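Sequence, please.
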């Protein structure tokens, strides 16, 4: 190792000498082939051989210096570099013949020059490959210590395309001490037993479990960027049945430019396992609704509100007004949007929907055309402990926003509602239900079109179980599930927001749009999936602990009430719940009752539940404990 370090100081000089030696050997071999004699050359051949070797050495060295061959780091060279070396040698051999024709140097024939050029190129490539494999295999370059074979992770790669090729090259160049690639999986039967970058294709998706057990696979890299959700879900579900940690290459749109593909690999998210299909939107209609308009989003710092802002700016509004009481989250979304859309007119305002003076100032200044009302307290158990705050923010806050929209004749108001508003068993759900009633009642007497969009849980949102489970797994468990049979509807945040915008284009006023959330998911199964995707075994490596339903929590969520009938829209994922008749005078009375309730110094639980039942007849405080 010490000798190699010393020699590396004279690297370029040594390589030049070796290349000149290759030139001499090549011309000698070429002469042997042409004369059919090994040693018995006459003086003429010896003289020509000497002149040719000297001339070629000069020409080759000039070409090599111009093309900067000696600047290449041998351990990182690859096939295209080797092809270039052979081409440079052929060019040099032709130049030798041209110089001889011009200056009559007395060098070898063109035939011998070209033959020697091929030999020189092959010898250069050969000795560089040998050096490269010595450096990589023994990991002696820069004094990196050899890693014990048992410390390397056995790696299985899924997909035999360009991505796999790039990943294998990166591992071979820099991470051979970390990964031992056992093989590649590909569903194309014609590719079985073929080789990608030196790694053999050893089976298809049906062989994954068997291969993982036989080869003790520690890590699986899913390297297919272009794949439909159905096949992706099926393959990942098979991977779940192994003990391997799974990492996945995101879609082409998500791949970060400038990074090698290995760095783009990420942990598998629950969205990958749910396998929800990409939703088609009528972007033209959404653009007509938003473009060159002033749009206000309340609660714009939250998970729903911030994604609304991200998608709205794509449709070129004249101005985006972002309102949120929490300054930190508002600052982050403002910074993000301004960095991506520096020309966009954005106003980030710290304020509360409970503050009527703040709302008056915003509407009188900016006169928004559309209002998306996402501001709300949404955490069910917390609102059970702080019910008056839920009423103040969710009900009275929404009441203020609705009234100010009516006063300034906003074109359309869109309430972001929840499936917890259906037959609510929690204070939070009950407050959102009265907001829906408010929307339908106000629409009957206002020029503003008031609508609501109702949907279930969104993945990775603030308060979602998915981030909680991930954190619990990271900490070594236990993962806490409230009930083994509890189910929830799930949708990705971008998917939900896209459908909210689409539903807004269908609005005529008074509708409660209900989003198709797909099939409900068992939370216990969700916990098991996340543990398996982390390369761990549920209830062995990580315990799943049942802790019982929390206050206000339902075992099953619903998207519609019994008396509501769903009407189809032109989008297969969006439905309209049949309006339930309620007058604005009834709403005003209910709001007055709740206003008085919040002004009391103390309200006991029974009194609160009685009043909420009076205001929201479908509210059942005991329903969540069944």
């Amino acid at each position: 190792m010490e000798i190699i370090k010393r020699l590396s100081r004279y690297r370029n000089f040594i390589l030049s000498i070796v290349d000149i030696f290759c030139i001499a050997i090549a011309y000698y071999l070429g002469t042997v082939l042409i004369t059919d004699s090994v040693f018995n050359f006459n003086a003429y051949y010896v003289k020509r051989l000497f002149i040719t070797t000297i001339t070629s050495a000069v020409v080759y060295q000039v070409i090599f210096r111009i093309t900067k061959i000696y600047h290449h780091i041998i351990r990182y060279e690859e096939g295209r570099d080797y092809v270039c070396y052979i081409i440079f040698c052929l060019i040099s051999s032709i130049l030798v013949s041209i110089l001889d024709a011009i200056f009559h140097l007395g060098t070898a024939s063109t035939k011998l020059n070209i033959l020697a050029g091929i030999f020189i190129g092959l010898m250069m490539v050969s000795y560089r490959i040998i050096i490269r494999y010595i450096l990589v295999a023994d990991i002696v370059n820069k004094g990196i210590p050899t890693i014990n074979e048992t410390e390397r992770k056995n790696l299985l790669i899924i997909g035999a395309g360009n991505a796999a090729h790039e990943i294998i090259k990166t591992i071979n160049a820099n991470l051979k001490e970390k990964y031992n690639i056992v093989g590649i999986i590909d569903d194309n039967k014609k590719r079985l037993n073929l080789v990608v970058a030196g790694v053999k294709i050893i089976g298809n998706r049906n062989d994954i479990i068997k291969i993982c057990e036989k080869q003790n696979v520690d890590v699986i890299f899913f390297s297919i960027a272009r794949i439909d959700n159905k096949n992706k879900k099926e393959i990942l579900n098979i991977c779940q049945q192994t003990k391997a940690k799974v990492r996945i290459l995101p879609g082409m749109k998500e791949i970060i430019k400038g990074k090698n593909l290995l760095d783009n690999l990420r942990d598998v998210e629950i969205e990958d396992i749910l396998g929800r299909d990409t939703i088609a939107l009528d972007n033209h209609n959404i653009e007509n609704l938003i473009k060159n308009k002033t749009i206000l989003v309340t609660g714009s710092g939250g998970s729903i509100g911030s994604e609304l802002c991200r998608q709205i700016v794509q449709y070129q509004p004249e101005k985006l007004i972002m309102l949120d009481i929490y300054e930190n989250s508002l600052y982050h979304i403002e910074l993000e949007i301004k960095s991506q859309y520096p020309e966009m007119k954005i106003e980030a305002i710290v304020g509360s929907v409970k503050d009527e003076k703040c709302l008056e100032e915003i509407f009188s200044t900016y006169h928004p055309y559309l209002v998306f009302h996402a501001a709300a307290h949404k955490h069910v158990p917390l609102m059970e402990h702080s019910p008056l705050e839920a009423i103040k923010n969710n009900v009275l806050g929404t009441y203020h926003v609705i009234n100010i929209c009516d006063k300034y004749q906003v074109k359309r108001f869109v309430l972001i509602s929840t499936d917890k508003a259906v037959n609510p068993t929690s204070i939070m759900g009950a407050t959102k239900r009265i907001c829906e009633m408010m929307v339908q009642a106000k629409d009957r007497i206002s020029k503003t079109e008031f609508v609501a969009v109702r949907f279930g849980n969104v993945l990775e949102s603030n308060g979602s179980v998915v981030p909680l489970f991930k954190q619990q797994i990271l900490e070594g468990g236990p993962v806490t599930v409230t009930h083994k049979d509890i189910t929830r509807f799930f949708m990705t945040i971008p998917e939900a927001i896209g459908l909210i915008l689409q539903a807004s284009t269908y609005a005529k006023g008074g509708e409660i749009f209900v989003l198709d959330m797909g099939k409900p998911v068992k939370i216990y199964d969700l916990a098991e999936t996340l543990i398996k995707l982390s390369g761990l075994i549920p209830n062995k490596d990580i315990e799943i602990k049942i802790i019982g339903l929390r206050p206000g929590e339902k075992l099953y969520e619903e998207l519609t009430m019994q008396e509501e009938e769903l009407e189809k829209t032109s989008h297969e994922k969006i439905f309209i719940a049949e309006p339930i008749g309620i007058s604005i005078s009834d709403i005003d009375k209910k709001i007055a009752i709740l206003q008085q309730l919040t002004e009391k110094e103390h309200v006991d639980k029974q009194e609160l539940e009685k009043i909420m039942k009076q205001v929201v007849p479908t509210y059942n405080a005991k329903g969540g404990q069944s």
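Residues 2-143 form one domain.
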